[in-house]
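Reminder: ligand-aware prediction takes two inputs, not one.
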Amino acid sequence: MFNLILFGPPGSGKGTQSEKLISKYGLKHLSTGDLLRSEIAVQTPLGLAVKSLMAEGKLVPDEIVIEMINSALDNNPHVNGFLFDGFPRTTAQAEALDKLLSQKGTEIALVLALQVRQQELVKRLLSRGRTSERADDVNEDIIAARIAEYEKKTAAVAEHYKEFGKVKYVQGEGSIDDIFNLLCEGIDEKKPA
Ligand code: B4P
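Here is what comes back for the chain with BIS(adenosine)-5'-tetraphosphate:
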């Protein structure tokens, strides 16, 4: 199995690039943001519990996302590997993920970390907010709150994987295709043929 984390601040292109990467490498895409938004869309108790937190730009509690990932891993036993998008977002989530994967006899092979300047993140998210239904993209205060959560709680996840020599930084500004090619180069260096 080849397991990859696509890492970066909100608006860095994780969702955008994940779509292209799963199609090229045949990985199973696990986006905690998408999983949470589906729970909200069908108004499950979990969805109702996390809706306001997400709308305010705050992270949802670790236990909730770890349990969602645990179920997703169990429900997909025969895949080539997973692409984790937007997860892990705290050191506790990273440690839980490492443990879950090790119980299945596998591990994270690579963390691709997209680097984008804050002013570009804000511009992209406000632009998506003009056309999407996402409550967390509509105003600059909420976007600032998401970026602050990233700096406070999520940036440390890269440090966690750096200790194991698994992080590769990738320039996340430029055309979507050029960034995709850089990500593919990073994967091809690590992935067994
Ligand atoms: P996510 O769904 O993960 O959303 P995101 O960080 O905003 O990034 P996303 O992947 O959607 O955007 P992308 O960069 O592709 O999380 C949303 C919320 O869910 C979190 O705030 C939190 O509340 C909760 N959550 C999710 N996972 C959690 C976890 N593990 N723990 C706790 N809480 C969790 O794209 C953004 C825009 O940029 C798009 O419009 C795109 O078209 C554009 N874009 C992309 N690449 C571009 C490029 N190269 N040039 C120009 N524009 C580009």
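The two ends are 12 Å apart (CA to CA). Strands lie at 3-7, 28-31, 82-85, 108-115, 167-171. We will return to this case in the review session.
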